[in-house]
Amino acid sequence: MNNLPIDGTPLAASPLTRAVLEIDEYAAGLGWDQPARLFALVDTDRLRAEEPALAEQLGLGGEGDDAPSPASLTPVEQDELPPGIPLDEFLGTIAWPDTVAGCAMTVERLMLPPSAEASVPEGLQEEGAEERLAQWVAQHPERQEVRMTVAVLRDGARETALRLREKDSPTEVLTGPDLVPGLTEALAATFAD
Question: b/e per residue, 65-83, with b = 16+ CB within 10 A?
C-alpha cells in the first residue's frame, strides 16, 4: 500500500519535509536548466490570520477540509536572484522579517561521484580555480545534473531534496537534513542576528 496522498508527499513527513517536497515538485514542473529560486517559508495559520488576502491569493482559503494541516508551512517564492552575483555573496545580503519561519532554495548543479575525486587534476582544488574546476566537472563523463532543494527553519531544522536529471521522477527524490551541508549552512546564516 502507498502512503502518499494525491500530491505525492508522504503523510508522515514533517512540515519542513512536506514544504521541501512541494517546492521540489514545483521546480520539477518548470523543467530543467532553471535559475536558482529563493522561497520564504511562513507558518500557514499565521499567514491566514495576518495576511488573509495573500492567503486567499495563494489558495490557502479558510479552515475548511482543503486547508493545510495545522503545523504546515507555505513556501512563498521571492523575486528572481540578481544575475552576476555569486550565490554565497547574495545570501550574505539577506535578512528575513520575524514573520518568516524559514527559507528554501532550489539550485541546479553538476556533481561527480566520490570515485571521481581522486582524478581531479592538480591545482583545480585550490582557491581561485573554481571556474576551471567547474569546466572540468562539466566535461567529465561521470557528471550528473542534480536539482537541490534545501530548506532551513529559524529553530535550526533542516531538510534537503535531491533529484537527478537522469532519474527525474517524484519517486526518485532523495531527502535528508545533511545532503548539501554548505548550502544548508549558507541559508541558516540568513537568520543569524
Answer: eeebeeebbbbbeeeebee
Rg (CA), the chain: 18
Q: CB of 187 within 8 A of CB of 38?
A: no
Q: How far is CA 158 from CA 19, 109, 166, 170, 171, in A?
A: 11, 20, 26, 20, 21
Q: Mind listing the pLDDT tens digit for each residue in 160-177?
A: 999 998 888 888 898 999
Interval 81-131: pLDDT, tens: 888 888 888 998 999 999 899 999 999 988 777 777 777 777 777 776 667
Query: By CB neighbour count within 10 A (0-12 exposed, 13-18 middle, 19+ buried), where does 94 fall?
Result: middle
The DSSP call for residue 95 is -
**Whole-structure pTM value:** 0.79
The alpha carbon torsion through 112, 115, 117, 119 (nearest 10 deg) reads -110
- Count the neighbouring beta carbons within 10 Å of the beta carbon of residue 152: 27
Distance in angstroms (rounded) separating the CA atoms of residues 44 and 34: 27
Q: Which three cell numbers stand for residue 164?
A: 537527478
Alpha-carbon distance of 69 to 50, in angstroms, equals 18
